[in-house]
Design brief:
single chain, alpha+beta, 7 helices, elongated
Length: about 290
């Protein structure tokens, strides 16, 4: 529709007022756009900063993993050389002595045989410990609960920290990868507790909640600043970051809570699905609590 141009002073004034109103609307609209752009820019800046932080953590984690592998190999090599090799050498010396004394002097032979048996037993225990730390056969042969029970029993024996263990029997329906994740998380958490927490009691619990499996590890030791440790540029507690990575790799979530006087609780929650991605139909009945 063709508009009639303003010709009178009144029409000119009305047109000017209308133009000012439109101009104010345009200014307001542009301010909103500018505000949204600024907000978006800040958001993307935060995402970029977070991405850089995660990349740096990943690089640091990779370095630490390689370093940890080398340290582990070094320790195994040293213990194999210092303990097992020397023990086997001593056994060999004893056996050589037996061959001479068995026909010459039988006095003291029984005591030497007993000593040799102790050396053999020590070597067997060392080999068992290496095997359990690297990959417990119980986890593959009997399942997560027997493997954890064995590990926790040995943990209490070594550290004198009391452990109460409760497990949902149906956890064995989980895929092998998920059961391995739960075992490694428990192993890392207990290692951290032994090294840092100064705890006297630990409670390990595996429960079913809806379509998820939740493992919690609670200790009564000293607390620490979770955010500072988890998101530090230079990770000092590789165990926590490693646990989180393992859990998230199988679609789970990982949480750490720590407060003065209340100890620390680590939670790993995984989807309750088997190796074929199906949700097993089992009752949420826990096994009896075991005090180790």
């Amino acid at each position: 529709m063709k508009t009639t141009p303003a010709t009178t002073p009144v029409q000119l004034r009305l047109a000017l007022i209308e133009a000012k109103v439109e101009l104010k609307k345009e200014v307001a609209r542009r301010l909103v756009v500018e505000k949204n752009l600024l907000k978006s820019e800040l958001h993307h800046g935060l995402l970029l900063k977070e991405s850089h932080l995660m990349q740096e953590q990943l690089r640091h984690l990779t370095h630490q993993v390689l370093f940890a592998q080398e340290q582990e190999r070094k320790e195994i090599s040293r213990e194999l050389h210092d303990d097992i090799a020397q023990t086997l050498t001593a056994i060999n010396v004893h056996l050589a002595t037996f061959t001479k004394e068995v026909t010459i002097n039988t006095q003291g032979l029984k005591a030497k045989i007993a000593l040799t048996q102790k050396l053999v037993e020590k070597s067997v225990n060392i080999v068992h410990r290496f095997a359990r730390d690297l990959r417990p056969t119980l986890l593959d042969d009997l399942g997560l609960i027997p493997a954890l029970h064995s590990y926790l029993k040995d943990f209490t024996k070594r550290t004198k920290v009391l452990v109460a263990f409760t497990a949902f029997a149906g956890v064995e329906k989980l895929s092998n990868a998920r059961r391995t994740v739960l075992y490694r998380v428990a192993q890392s958490a207990l290692t951290n507790i032994a090294q840092h927490a100064r705890a006297t009691h630990v409670k390990v619990s595996i429960q079913k909640s809806g379509n998820t499996i939740r493992m919690t590890i609670h200790d009564n030791g000293r607390s620490f600043a979770v955010e500072r440790v988890l998101f530090a540029k230079r990770q000092k507690r590789l165990g926590l970051l490693g646990m989180r990575e393992r859990v998230e790799m199988v679609g789970g979530s990982f949480l750490v809570e720590s407060a003065p006087g209340k100890g620390t609780t680590i939670s790993a929650q995984l989807p309750f699905v088997d190796a074929k991605g199906r949700t097993p139909s089992v009752a949420a009945t826990p096994t009896a609590e075991i005090q180790l």
